[in-house]
């Protein structure tokens, strides 16, 4: 007698039920030979479906001995790992389920191809074989239809074709006619008999005696025990014919092919749930848009300030009270006086020097009043700070000496105070209670560290401001423009030495434009980093959202996962597919986020003058890398959860 194809000894399957244990299969012994057509019958709850799941290598929670003989290599199934069991299912078993268990996102032809994809079959070969099987089963005109467009009988024939695509040496049919009308049921049984005649081993699980009457052998099970094993007279195992092999590709190509198929499956899954996919990636979109926009805004703002500094030149030095910016006594230090400015102006490295005092107040012209910044300066102020006149001229040294009540205004002050269009030069305005005659108008500018864009600025001789408006004898700032022929660093050292000699102590601080540039760069980078860190939090929140939705997706698609495992998907295949979905969600979200950031930058640039966004390729590349890492990091747990599902439990999920 030939070696049995399936041999089980003392097979036992128990399930925990609270504090108790339910025994579903009780020490079963069973042998099935090549080419047999066997019906396993019994009432609901008898254990027949559990036995089929064990025979099909879907359930591995049993005890006992289960060996596969013949071309299956005499392997002990109990010693096989999950991926080895998956290899058995895709290479030797074919499943026909009562509820068809087709993948809703794939058409008939694609459903049939799925086991061949996991088996590493060449694309053209598997497509040709799937096409031929569907033609043979009378579905040539329905290949491109999805399951919801097929009748029950047509769906069941698709599942038969899927069971045969890799050969189907052993076909396991669980209540295959249970969901079919009588005509479709008869057609299916005729087809199974035809397959059996060709040498396929057919195992049918049913409670229908009419189905059992059509097979060669009936195994009856009750309460987990085989109570009868009847064989029709003259029936016996048929010689197993050689299974038609599908051309396979090399292993390295197989991995790439499965990756490509997983990518396409992931795209289909995302496309079929567009709203959920968009809501999933919304957190990523907001996070990436925030990070890219903040970095671009920080870079743009920093560049704008540096451009303003550059327009002043790199040869100015500011002198302010206090040993440094953190000196708490600086407001009380009043040792910076006009004589210091005069002494500095006499030095050979000084191109020009301007003292400065500053205050805020009201400027009035006739019935128009506005807040203004009143700045007392020397006659060289406009040269030191590169201010250009649009009308009139600056006051001279004589005006400083005589405490002249004259003023220079900027174009913002002109447009605010002289609304009737009159010529401002020669007009008298009140600054506080002091009348000043306007002698010049300069272009409004932000290329300095005094008045900001939009503020009214009025300059007057510093002596006039100190004596007639402020009533003070000390200065707020002295600015030295270093001659082009002198070295700025050397000049800064000589200024420090001169002032320390004059004051007897170090009660002042010096800043040249290079120092200001470095400070602004450092501060800008720190602020950008801080705000970016806040934006990154939204990325993390988005990643958690991806993880939660992917976990929900795994729960919703549990039966799909079970079907894929039943037709031979490895744990790695399932892990790969869901991981690709998570990465795709994050990458697409990252792309939309970058585009949204571009839109924000353009809109803000149109609405807010002087505010610019500068995007760097490195930031955009970093955004995409971040998206990918988030997809991998937060998609791994749901993907692993999907890969570790028990095939039997997954198939039973609704």
Short description:
The chain is α/β, with parallel strands linked by helices and about 650 residues long. The protein is about 45% helix and about 20% strand. It is rod-shaped, with a radius of gyration of 43 Å.
Question: What features would you describe in this structure?
Answer:
This protein has 654 residues and is an alpha/beta fold. It is 47% helix and 21% strand. The protein is built from 20 helices and 20 strands. The protein has helices spanning 48-55, 82-92, 108-118, 123-136, 152-164, 182-197, 209-212, 251-272, 274-312, 338-345, 381-384, 397-401, 411-417, 462-470, 488-503, 513-556, 558-566, 571-607, 617-643, 647-651; strands at residues 6-17, 20-32, 37-41, 63-68, 75-76, 93-96, 170-174, 201-206, 217-222, 225-231, 316-321, 350-365, 368-377, 389-392, 406-410, 428-431, 434-442, 456-461, 477-482, 508-512. Strands 6-7-8-3-9-10 form a six-stranded mixed β-sheet, with helices on both faces. A six-stranded mixed β-barrel has the order 12-13-18-15-17-16. Helix 3 packs across helix 4 (123-136) and helix 9 (274-312) runs antiparallel to helix 19. It starts with 5 loop residues before the first strand and ends with a helix.
Topology readout:
Elements: E1 6-17, E2 20-32, E3 37-41, H1 48-55, E4 63-68, E5 75-76, H2 82-92, E6 93-96, H3 108-118, H4 123-136, H5 152-164, E7 170-174, H6 182-197, E8 201-206, H7 209-212, E9 217-222, E10 225-231, H8 251-272, H9 274-312, E11 316-321, H10 338-345, E12 350-365, E13 368-377, H11 381-384, E14 389-392, H12 397-401, E15 406-410, H13 411-417, E16 428-431, E17 434-442, E18 456-461, H14 462-470, E19 477-482, H15 488-503, E20 508-512, H16 513-556, H17 558-566, H18 571-607, H19 617-643, H20 647-651
Parallel strand pairs: 3-8, 3-9, 6-7, 7-8, 13-18, 15-17
Antiparallel strand pairs: 1-2, 1-4, 4-5, 9-10, 11-19, 11-20, 12-13, 12-16, 12-19, 14-17, 15-18, 16-17
């Amino acid at each position: 007698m030939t070696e049995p194809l399936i041999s089980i000894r003392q097979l036992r399957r128990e399930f925990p039920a609270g504090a108790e244990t339910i025994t579903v299969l009780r020490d079963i012994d069973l042998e099935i030979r090549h080419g047999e057509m066997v019906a396993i019958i019994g009432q609901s709850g008898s254990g027949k479906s559990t036995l089929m799941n064990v025979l099909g290598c879907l359930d591995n929670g049993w005890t006992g001995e289960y060996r596969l003989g013949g071309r299956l290599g005499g392997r002990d199934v109990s010693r096989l790992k999950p991926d080895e069991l998956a290899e058995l299912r895709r290479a030797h078993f074919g499943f026909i389920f009562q509820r068809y268990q087709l993948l809703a996102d794939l058409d008939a032809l694609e459903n049939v191809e799925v086991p061949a994809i996991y088996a590493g079959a060449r694309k053209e070969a598997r497509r040709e074989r799937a096409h031929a099987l569907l033609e043979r089963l009378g579905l040539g005109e329905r290949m491109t239809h999805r399951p919801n467009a097929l009748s029950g009988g047509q769906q069941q024939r698709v599942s038969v074709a899927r069971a045969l695509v890799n050969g189907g040496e052993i076909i396991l049919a669980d209540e295959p006619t249970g969901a079919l009308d009588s005509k479709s049921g008869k057609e299916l049984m005729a087809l199974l008999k035809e397959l059996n005649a060709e040498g396929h081993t057919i195992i049918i699980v049913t409670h229908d005696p009419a189905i059992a009457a059509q097979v060669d052998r009936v195994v009856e099970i009750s309460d987990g025990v085989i109570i009868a094993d009847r064989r029709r007279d003259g029936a016996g195992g048929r010689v197993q014919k050689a299974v038609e092999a599908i051309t396979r590709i090399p292993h390295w190509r197989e991995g790439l092919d499965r990756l490509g198929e997983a990518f396409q499956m992931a795209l289909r899954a995302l496309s079929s749930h567009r709203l959920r996919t968009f809501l999933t990636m919304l957190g990523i979109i907001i996070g990436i848009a925030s990070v890219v926009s903040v970095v671009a805004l920080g870079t743009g703002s920093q560049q704008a300030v540096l451009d303003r500094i550059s327009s002043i030149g790199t040869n100015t030095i500011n002198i302010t009270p206090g040993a440094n910016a953190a000196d708490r006594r600086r407001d009380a230090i009043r040792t910076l006086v006009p004589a210091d400015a005069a002494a500095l102006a006499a030095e050979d490295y000084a191109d020009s020097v301007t003292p400065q005092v500053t205050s805020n107040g009201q400027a009035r012209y006739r019935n128009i009043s506005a807040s203004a910044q009143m700045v007392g300066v020397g006659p060289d102020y406009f040269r030191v700070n590169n201010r250009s006149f649009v009308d009139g001229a600056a006051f001279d040294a004589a005006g400083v000496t005589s405490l002249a009540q004259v003023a220079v205004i900027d174009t913002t002050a002109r447009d605010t105070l002289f609304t009737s269009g009159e010529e401002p030069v020669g007009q008298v305005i009140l600054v506080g209670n002091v009348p000043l005659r306007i002698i010049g108008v300069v272009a409004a500018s932000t290329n300095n560290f005094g008045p900001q864009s939009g503020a009214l600025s009025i300059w007057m001789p510093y002596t006039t401001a100190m004596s007639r408006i402020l009533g003070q004898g000390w200065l707020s700032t002295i600015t030295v423009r270093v001659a082009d022929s002198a070295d700025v660093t050397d000049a800064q050292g000589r200024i420090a030495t001169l002032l320390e000699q004059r004051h007897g102590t170090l009660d002042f601080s010096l800043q040249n434009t290079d120092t200001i540039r470095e400070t602004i760069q450092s501060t800008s980078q720190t602020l950008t980093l801080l705000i970016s860190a806040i934006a990154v939090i939204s990325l993390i929140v988005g990643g958690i959202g991806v993880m939660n939705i992917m976990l929900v997706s795994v729960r919703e698609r549990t039966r799909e996962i079970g079907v894929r495992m039943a037709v031979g998907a490895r744990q790695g295949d399932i892990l790969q597919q869901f991981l690709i979905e998570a990465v795709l969600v994050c990458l697409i979200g990252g792309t939309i986020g970058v585009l949204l950031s571009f839109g924000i930058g353009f809109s803000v640039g149109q609405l807010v003058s002087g505010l610019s966004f500068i995007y760097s390729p490195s930031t955009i590349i970093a955004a995409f890398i971040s998206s990918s890492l988030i997809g991998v990091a937060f998609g791994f747990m749901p993907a692993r959860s999907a890969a570790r599902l028990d095939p039997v439990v997954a198939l039973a999920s609704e």
